[in-house]
Amino acid sequence: MDIRVYRPGELSTADRAAWTALQSKAHLNGSPELANPFLSPEFTLAVGRCRRGVRIAVVREDGEPTAFFPFQRSTTGVGRAVGLGVSDCQGLVHRPGFAWDAQDLLRECGLAVWEFDHLVEGQPPFEAGASGTFPSPVMDVDQGYETYLRQLRAQSPKFTRTTLAKERRLGRDAGEVRYVHDERDPAALRTLMDWKSAQYRRTGRSDRFAHAWINHLVLQLFHTRSESFAGILSVLYADGKPVAAHFGLRTERVLACWFPAYDPAFAKYSPGLIMHLRMAEAAAADGIAYLDLGRGQKEYKDSLKTRELSVSEGWVTRRHPVAVGHRARRAPVRALRNMVLSRPELFEPADRILKRMGKIRSSR
């Protein structure tokens, strides 16, 4: 087994094609989660144009690439998943039955530690370092939209009935409702980013779009298009005006939901929920197997999901002082955050405080 590490610009066309082929065959090989767009070469290369230290380890057997491991590396050997903080799926993309030793892989990559927070299922060498596992809800549409809608009506009859009624009411009150699954107008993307920034500030959360590199990353991915990968901007219009939008990434079989937002002036119509149903319908027509809603407990995700995947967070480490120091700094923060998120008696008052702080900031 030969492991070589490349900078993003050094990855050959043949290796990129091999990486994409592994993802394309993932559903047939019993590992559909590896087809997630956050594990695609396009995502890693885009992050590499925005952030330093992005590398790709290519594992070859008999001269043929059998696995790809993207990561970010600091000068001290601290490794992180590519796009940590905005990536919703992480890990090693590999052929069926491939086995690896995490310690050997880190050594060949020059890493003392590799940190992840959305590790895909089915990676035992990395899962051994997981400190927690969390649900990532999905919407299955591989049997068609009508089948999905029947299942939704059976498991959440009131939610389904109310959402569809709100869509009709939106049309009566605001004008013709129109959905564009793959909107190519950059102005619509800018509107979505503005809405999302305002939502982050309103709820007291850190505004991701206040970071130039995330803006640059999203714009790059919006303009990235191929048969196997694309950035998809979906917009719900009422009387020609955008009322909800979503930007996500797709491969041939998976649509990863990423940045949804809506115009608060239309909140009573739940335009975000309407948009997600329209997204499911369009995705099913495009041959998508499922929409991955991403890690995080949200009421709308519980209402829309058909099942859950699992993702993990944690660290893979070698015996190295850098690894000990990095984990010592990061572990308490992660543990505290997860405790708050998992306990309603802690999360609800914390959420109220954040929203109150958001209102104060917005009023300045």
Automatic annotation (TrEMBL):
It comes from the Bacteria. SUPFAM superfamilies: Acyl-CoA N-acyltransferases (Nat) (SSF55729). Residues 160-301 form the BioF2-like acetyltransferase domain. It comes from Streptomyces kaempferi. Pfam families: Acetyltransf_6. This is GNAT family N-acetyltransferase.
